[in-house]
Amino acid sequence: MRRNLAGLGAVRVLLLALAAVLLVGAVTVSVPVLSSAGLLVACVALVAALGVLVQGLWQSRGHTDWSHTFTAPAQPRGVDTRITRLAGDVRAAAAGDADAGRRLHAAVSMLAVDHLRLRRGLSLAEEPEAAGAALGPDLTAYLTQPPPSRLPGDRLAAFTTTLEEL
Fold first, then answer.
1. Could you please report the per-residue DSSP string of 92-125?
2. pLDDT tens-digit series, residues 17-48
3. Are 138 and 159 in contact (CB under 8 A)?
4. Total-model pTM
């Protein structure tokens, strides 16, 4: 009998144990003479069902690896949400979405300020003439004015190239 039960999956064994508990409970409730003895048998069947469940969980458990190096897991390539969000903003800004245009303007402005500071030691706010000469007239105009309602992709590509060459 044990071999037959071992051949069943854990879910089927659990369902079989629960069916036995329900059967014993139904017999206990329907036959008044068995009320005290039946409740005892029902409790034993319930404990047996829980034992079968624990045994099934114990047998199906896997090896637990407790070693941890406390390093950030490496994300698969292409999973960076910042790049995905930026690509979506580029597409939406090219289509004329004002919110995406503002987010894109903020991102390009932040990059320009960082590149100017790190590569040239300039500040767009403190030295607008020198920074404007380094960035060029188009990118300087884009950064100093409110974001346009629509930003074509070729213009953004030119801005990116200018920042890369800075």
1. HHHHT-HHHHHHHHHHHHHHHHHHIIIII---TT
2. 778 777 777 776 777 766 677 677 777 777 78
3. yes
4. 0.49
